[in-house]
Design brief:
There is one protein chain. Helices cover 38% and strands 26% of the residues. The protein is of the alpha+beta class and 165 residues long. It has a four-stranded antiparallel β-sheet. The chain has a four-stranded antiparallel β-sheet with strand order 2-7-4-5, with no helix packed on it. α4 (116-125) packs across α5 (127-164). It has a single domain (4-164), classed as Jelly Rolls, CATH 2.60.120.10.
Length: 165
């Protein structure tokens, strides 16, 4: 079972007190992945959110869809380290949305997962917990969208300059 002290340091769970966090500890499931394992696959449907507690993962995206099978089309978007207790797959507990990137174990990893079904069970027990987690997820996704927008502008600018040459 995950320690409440760890959960206190996770952004998705900020604003929850120990009583609320104690509702989560029995339903978060420990899972392990070996180096090179896919934890999430881009465009696959998923209903689970993950918290990385040991190891490192790489978030990747195929940049050129439908052209060859070369892995050189895959771009590393981020490397997440367990020291920061990163989360990913948050859309999974909000609904069965397609995954937006690959997440691949860069080292052997330990993670805790929370399924949509377990999240929904918690929501029925205590709507405050569900509300706060949903609010935090909205903020995380908003921050990621802003970063993506910034990167898209940089890419469009670079393409414009290249075409003008």
């Amino acid at each position: 079972m995950i320690d409440i002290e760890i959960l206190k340091r996770v952004r998705i769970f900020s604003g929850l007190d120990e009583a609320h966090l104690s509702l989560l500890t029995p339903i978060l499931k420990l899972c392990t992945y070996k180096k090179g394992d896919h934890i999430l696959r881009d465009d696959s449907l998923g209903d689970t959110f993950f918290l990385l507690v040991e190891g490192k993962v790489r978030v990747t995206k195929e940049l050129v869809k439908g052209i060859g099978e070369s892995s050189s089309n895959e771009k590393v978007l981020a490397t997440l380290d367990a020291e920061l207790l990163p989360t990913f797959g948050e859309n999974g507990i909000l609904g069965h949305a397609p995954r937006t990137a690959n997440v691949i174990a860069y080292t052997d990893c330990s993670l805790y997962s929370l399924s949509k079904a377990d999240f929904d069970t918690i929501a029925l027990k205590d709507s405050t917990v569900a509300y706060q987690i949903t609010l935090n997820i909205a903020q995380v996704l908003s921050d990621r969208l802003k970063a993506t927008d910034d990167n898209l502008v940089k890419l469009a600018t670079a393409l414009y300059i290249a075409v003008q040459q």
